[in-house]
């Protein structure tokens, strides 16, 4: 049996369920082998490890995205070649390995002008932000957007994509110590999700928003909807409220989070001229992979033209994956956290 070093989840639970060890590798036949450099840490790693994302068969390898170089090709007809630099993505996980074997549909060539570190921070964050802000959000000149968690990986990308549109005002929530950095990234007005949030937001932006990017389900979502201008759009991409710095979540807590959100009233959509949308990057790729590849190429071009500036918060070795995911759960990151699979020479 062939193996590679991997971040393994053997049972669902707290941080201590993660281990770094040799884990079974599928055969090369029908797959591409990649020597991995970095993995991009996502908030979803927290949900997945706790068993909240979807039913996964245990044990499994964590991680949705990574970058590296192709070392072997086990597929007959493909343009992919040994030596090529690539991004790999699979929302079903399996990416945190030092050597990875995946089917070609999980691979995206990485242009030479993008470093491995940048590449590991682009796929999930920038594509999610792109489809939320540009496609579903349809953000236009001189409009106002509210970005919840503007200092996080997706929020950082969403701010930059918004500021590429003339005259857009970005209002962002984040922890107070992150204000200076998010303002440098383009956020015009900052506030914090504390007990005064609703009052502060109404005072700061009495005219409301054309677009809201929400990472919060639950009661806050209901309030945010009311802050939309006529013809305003709210795009829901996650449920950060379900993670309270790693307190164990019961299935009931999880479901409660969604139940309290599910009541988007159809009548209100009409009466208040609102659009309520949702995005799941993984299922979008399943249904329309070409559209995602096109969007990725647009993002690469914008990086080349220096219209987008990828920010890495910290790179930690694979063995310190627990610390890496804790940076997100404890609200410490500004931009993207990476884990490194590099073997130092
Ligand atoms: N639908 C999709 O396809 C898709 C794809 C990617 C990501 N997402 C979602 O988008 C959100 C952002 O993802 P990301 O990977 O970029 O993560 P991230 O924003 O970098 O996550 C960490 C940050 O979230 C903020 N946060 C807010 N509430 C939190 C809580 N209860 N516990 C911990 N941190 C909290 C913290 O910043 P502040 O408190 O300073 O704001 C923290 O630094 C997540 O909900 C994720 O699931 C969805």
UniProtKB/TrEMBL annotation:
UniProt keyword annotation of Protein transport present: no
* Record InterPro entries: ADH-like_N (IPR013154), ER (IPR020843), GroES-like_sf (IPR011032), NAD(P)-bd_dom_sf (IPR036291), SV-ATPase_mito-regulator (IPR052100)
Query: Which is one Pfam family of this protein?
Result: ADH_N
Which UniProt keywords are listed? Oxidoreductase
Molecular functions (GO terms):
oxidoreductase activity
Q: Where is the Enoyl reductase (ER) domain?
A: 13-339
Keyword Hydrolase tagged = no
What is the protein's given name? Answer: Enoyl reductase (ER) domain-containing protein
